[in-house]
Amino acid sequence: MRAVNAHSGLSEPELPTLLLEFHGAPAAVDEEVECVREVVSAIRGVIPKGMPLFIRISATDWIEGGWDIEQSIALAGQLGPLGVDLVDCSSGGISPAANAKIPVAPNYQVPFAEEIRGETGILTGAIGMITSMNQADTILREGRADVILMAREFLREPYWPLHAAHVEGFQASWPAQYLRAAPQGTPAREPMESPESARRASVRTSAAE
Questions:
Q1: Cys-Cys with 93: which of 7, 100, 183, 191 at CB 3.0–4.6 Å?
Q2: What distances in angstroms separate CA 187 from CA 141, 166, 190, 205, one per listed residue?
Q3: Tell me: the pLDDT tens digits for 174-191?
Q4: What does the alpha-carbon distance between residue 151 and residue 6 come to, in Å, rounded to a whole number?
Q5: Which domains does the chain have, with CATH numbers?
C-alpha cells in the first residue's frame, strides 16, 4: 500500500493505494495519519492472515515545514502494531520545488530505512539508486535495511536477481519456460499461490474449524 505519494512514474492499479499529502498543519497531519491507520486496519482485516502487508511512504518531503523523518518514525511506530510488516522508505516527489534540494546519489535514501528500522524495530526496505550486487549486499549485511527494493535497475535489467544469483553461486529457481536458458542444474520455480486462492483456502479452513 502506498500511504504517502512518493512519486507517480508508475501506476499501481492492482494494489490498495492511498495517496496523501501532508501540509504541515498539526490537525491536518493528525487526521491524515489516522486515515492511514484506518486503511491499514481495514486491509489487514480482510487479507489472508499470512499475507504480508507492505506500505510505501515518503520519509521526507525535502521541504522546510513539510513531512519529515521524525514524523515518519512516529508513523511507522504506530503501523507496526496494526499489522504492517514492512515500510518501504522512499522520499520526495510531492513538490517540484524540492527537486533541486534532493541529494540524488547512490544510497541517498538508505538512511531513512536505517533510522526507521533502528527507532521502531519494524522491517524496512531501502530503495533509490541501488544498482549493484555489492551495494545491495553491503546494505543488508550492515543491518541498514531488511530488504532491497529496486525500480529503474529492473527496467534496465529485468533479470537482475537471476544474474546476481548466478554470479554469487546461489542456485535460484527459474520459471519452467526459461530453463533452457538457465545455468545447468537450475531448478524449476514452483508456481505461487494467487491471493484469491489463498483467500479461498483460508475461508475453507475457517469453515472447517
A1: 7
A2: 27, 13, 9, 31
A3: 989 999 998 888 999 887
A4: 13
A5: 26-158 (3.20.20.70), 172-209 (no CATH)
